[in-house]
Design goal:
Length: 339
Amino acid sequence: MDKFNILECTLRDGGYITGWHFEKKMMADTVRKLIEANLDFVEVGYLNHKLYEENTSQFNNIEQISEILPSKKERENTVIIAMADVQQFLPEDLTPFSGKSIDGIRVVFYKHQIEEALKMCEAVSKNGYKLFVQPMVTIDYTVDEYASLIARVKALKPYAVSIVDSFGYMIKSDFRNYFKILDNLLPPETIIGFHSHNNMNLAFITAQDILEYQTTRRLVIDSSLYGMGRGAGNLNTELICNYYNKLFGDKYNINKILSLISDYIMPINQKTKWGYSPYMFITGLYHYHPNFACYLLDEYEVSVSEFSKFLLTIPEDMKTKCKKPYVLEMYKKFKESGN
């Protein structure tokens, strides 16, 4: 595996657009073609407690995932992973690594869930999976808080730890500040990753900087086909793979990637839109959860200027805690106040 790598997460992050409903044939074909396109990592969906439905990328056990995977020999150069939310999948739900399904598990959590997350991380490692650690909203951590977390994570010997720009407003210097902490504390073999969102159209800019970063450590950048993902979406796989090829020589098969976009992603985009918008820019500008825009615009026609004023009425301690009933209640109060 190269120093710079791409982690393709369409079937997981793109699931926010479809409610994780994807035809099984589409999922199997997507995984196969991403492998053929030489993607280094492919994230195939979520592990959780929901009752399993056939044509979704949400799985309530690891064995179910094997049904959409090619043979081990066919995917020997690609690491297959799934994401586990610490509130939706528990250590006791894990089954030991068998070599027939996924290779690794990415444990995702908020700052207030650290203790549960570390228990889950320990269980992932003990069961023989590659451990990927994904602390959401990385920029919420002070330098000391982040260093304290990483010192504890280090003891679990993670395969990878990611810097996560959950709300899409981190700039290059932000990434570098958190990277230095990881680089100083983690074992040299641990991969450092970057997961971005495109609220302020910074995802591709920061990813370019990472590919030109002077380091001996292996790095991995997350992306999705056509940037498919909630709200402003993610870094585009086709863009970052092409940029990699321009810098380092042809590695990723762009035609395979484009065929997936044409066959599966464009038809979805015609029904449900995602990507940059002024509303997403505003959530990034003021450091609010993007769902403040998603939930409100699902129910009301709100001008950009009105949305900006509304967002500034949300209490500081609720900026990242976003539930639809709360958003609608606060908007009702905003309107009643005469704004």
